[in-house]
Amino acid sequence: MKNNLIWTNGTPLTDDTYIEQTEKELGIIFPNSFKEIVRKYDGGIPNKPAFVCIDYRSHKIIGAFYHLGYMNPEEIGSVSDISSISGEILPSGVIPFAEDGGGNATCFDYRKNPENPEIVYYYHEHPAGKDILFVAHNFDEFLEMLFDNDDGVPLSER
Q1: Radius of gyration of the chain (CA)
Q2: For residues 85 and 88, what is the distance between their CA atoms, to the nearest angstrom?
Q3: I need a labelling partner for 92 at 20 to 30 A (CA). Which of 57, 104, 115, 153 fits?
Q4: Taking all residues of the chain, what is their mean pLDDT, rounded to a whole number?
């Protein structure tokens, strides 16, 4: 696994039905490395949940990945549920896949490249037009930049 990540609280999918249904519903194809993680750890949390938003130069945290599989309605939403709710807030082609627990989301941005989406961060407290912040050129790069937020390495050295 990229960046020696260990995943917790995830649920393995029994087959690719949920992945395929979500892709079809959203009109996108998820990166293969994202699908690999979801197959084993749907809704999981990486042991290195922190990353830096390049545009904002700020330390952000992943609370959990959204689920692709069936969800209990009282739990956090699925990718397709969150995307349909966010359709009024996020631009078309920006698909959230993880949340931080505070109303912000890490997203795929399919607007420039539908085959290899960038990773962006939706920061709900910023004004519209300045609320989507660049994180990484693709999902693999994003996985490589995750770090343990308790490791003591200053952001300036990342």
Answers
A1: 15
A2: 7
A3: 57
A4: 79
Q: Hey, what CATH class is 2-157 in?
A: alpha beta
Contact 79, 95 (CB under 8 A): yes
pLDDT tens, position by position, 24-41: 888 899 999 999 999 999
Measured CA to CA in angstroms, residue 155 lies from 53, 131, 147, 148, 151 at distances of: 11, 21, 10, 12, 11
The domain ranges of the chain are 2-157
Q: Which residues pair with 64 in a beta bridge?
A: 99
* Burial letters 64-82, b for 16+ CB under 10 A, else e: bbbbbbebeeeebbbbbeb
CA–CA dist 31, 139 (Å, integer): 7
Task: Tell me which range, 19-23, 49-53, 71-75, 146-150, is most confidently predicted by mean pLDDT.
Answer: 19-23
Closest Cα partner for 90 from 38, 42, 126? 126
pLDDT tens-digit map of 122-145: 887 776 777 888 999 999 999 998
Angle at 25 between CA 137 and CA 111, to 5 degrees: 30
